[in-house]
Design a protein that fits this description.
There is one protein chain. The protein has two domains: 164 residues, no CATH class; 51 residues, no CATH class. 49% of the residues lie in helices and 8% in strands. The protein contains seven helices and five strands, in the order βαααααββαββα. A three-stranded mixed beta sheet has the order 1-4-5. It has a two-stranded antiparallel ribbon with strand order 2-3. α1 crosses α2 and α4 packs antiparallel against α5. It starts with a strand and ends with a helix. 33% of the residues are buried. Bound molecules: zinc ion (ZN) (2 copies). The site of one zinc ion has 8 residues, from β5 and α7.
Length: 223
């Protein structure tokens, strides 16, 4: 029953405000000459001691795979919209029929397109299905596993497997108490680990299932 953030972009549950605060703290540490803080800035700016808050924000954006703070902000806003949409869909998950799922996807896919745009995914064609964790296109990955409205690629399954395996980092639940696995719908309380991506979460049981699907697929391919 722990929540582990997916190590790319901006996981569910990290609000943009807390990153803004983090930027201010990092700036203070840099100005105080803190070695660890200076090391974070060095790869991006030659004169880390002279940086401004704006530049610190850029460092934080780059660390998370965004080309600018603005893109990180756009991503966070789209992500929060997506979470809100998904929250609604979760409430009436049981009564969903295929027509409603199609309608739901029509609402969700432009939001995912915006997230892919901000994350710098190579091209953001809204008609193409993408991994809900890394935003890679379905045709650019080796294996692609579909949930009811969420997808995960083989690379992200591998990343998640690692996170599930060394799940000792277990974060306190706190505000993330409402998290569900987007693939099976189980609550964080019902599973051992939930990996929180940017608007999409997956539990350890679904990760395991994905590994089975991928491995069996591999065996079938090599036959
Ligand atoms: Zn992926
Ligand atoms: Zn699950």
């Amino acid at each position: 029953m722990t929540v582990t953030p997916f190590p790319f972009g901006l996981p569910t549950g990290i609000p943009i405000d807390s990153l803004r605060e983090h930027a201010k703290e990092l700036l203070k540490s840099v100005q105080a000459g803190d070695a660890a803080a200076l090391d974070r800035v060095k790869p991006y700016f030659r004169d880390p001691a002279g940086v401004t808050l704006q530049r610190i924000q850029l460092v934080i954006a780059r660390e998370r795979g965004f080309s600018s703070w603005r893109k990180l902000k756009d991503f966070a806003h789209a992500r929060d919209e997506l979470i809100e949409q998904k929250g609604k869909s979760l409430e009436d998950r049981r009564t969903f029929n295929s027509k409603e799922i199609t309608e739901k996807n029509a609402v969700i896919s432009p939001i995912v397109k915006r997230m892919a745009d901000s994350a710098g995914a190579e091209d953001a064609d809204p008609t193409v299905r993408r991994c809900s964790f890394c935003f890679k296109r379905q045709d650019r990955v080796w294996k692609f596993i579909a949930g009811s409205a969420n997808y995960i690629c083989d690379e992200c399954v591998e990343t998640c497997t690692g996170l599930v395996d060394d799940d000792r980092s277990g974060q306190a639940l706190g505000p993330q108490e409402g998290l569900h696995c987007d693939f099976c719908g189980k609550h964080v309380r019902e599973v051992r680990t939930v990996i929180a991506g940017a608007g999409t979460n997956i539990c350890d049981q679904c990760v395991e299932l994905c590994v089975t699907i991928i491995t069996e697929g591999t065996q079938a391919d090599s036959r």
